[in-house]
Design brief:
Structural class: alpha+beta
Protein name: FAS1 domain-containing protein
InterPro entries: Adhesion/Biosynth-related, FAS1_dom_sf, FAS1_domain
Pfam families: Fasciclin (PF02469)
Mean pLDDT: 83
Order of helices and strands: HEEHHHEHHHEHEEEEE
Number of strands: 9
CATH class: Mainly Beta
Low-confidence stretches: 1-23
Strand content: 25-35%
Number of domains: 1
CATH superfamily: FAS1 domain
Organism: Paraburkholderia sediminicola
Keywords: Signal
Length: 184
């Protein structure tokens, strides 16, 4: 009886902890994003981020985004890349344009772990806006447009809305954005 009770307790514990782990996942591109996986391992499963994943591979940034970080990635969707002028993505992924592609992609990455709460606090502390330095060295400006809507602006004044917040990763957080942000 003692072993049976221990087995039932262990089984219940596994079910309960599994339920909590499942509740920490966020669906992106039709797939669950698991907080125990890194940015790359989750992104490759998102049907909405196949262009971003291909670009990250072409730029040679896979190892960087698999490193401990932490990083906050403002991840443009396939639709965001498709909205660029015709031929832009095909041109960027060519080997001779690797430096430009790397600059654009690293412009979407901020060192540190910025979830909605931390971004919101930074915006409020900055009097309505926050500037975050990206991995490529330039800044993104964040403002609020409503109670739970953060807008990200690039140095050229173009803006992107965050459509999915707080996709927690083992080495950071992903914020899904609806536009590709461009450095100078």
């Amino acid at each position: 009886m003692k072993y049976k009770t221990m087995f039932v307790a262990a089984a219940l514990s596994a079910v309960v902890s599994g339920a909590f782990a499942a509740s920490d996942t966020v669906m992106v591109g039709g797939q669950a994003m698991y907080p125990n996986k890194d940015i790359v391992d989750n992104a490759v499963n998102s049907a909405d981020h196949t262009t971003l994943v291909a670009a990250v591979k072409a730029a040679g940034l896979v190892d960087t985004l698999k490193s401990p970080g932490p990083f906050t990635v403002f991840a443009p969707t396939n639709e965001a890349f498709a909205a660029l002028p015709a031929g832009t993505v095909d041109t960027l992924v060519k080997p001779e344009n690797k430096a430009m592609l790397t600059s654009i992609l690293t412009y979407h990455v901020v060192p540190g772990r910025y979830d909605f709460r931390k971004l919101d606090q930074a915006i409020k502390a900055g009097g309505g806006k926050a500037e975050l330095k990206t991995v490529n060295g330039e800044t993104l400006t964040l403002t609020e447009n409503g109670p739970h809507n953060i807008v990200v602006a690039d140095v050229n004044g173009h803006t992107a809305d965050i459509s999915t917040y707080d996709v927690i990763q083992s080495n950071g957080v992903i914020m899904v954005v609806d536009k590709v942000l461009m450095p100078k």
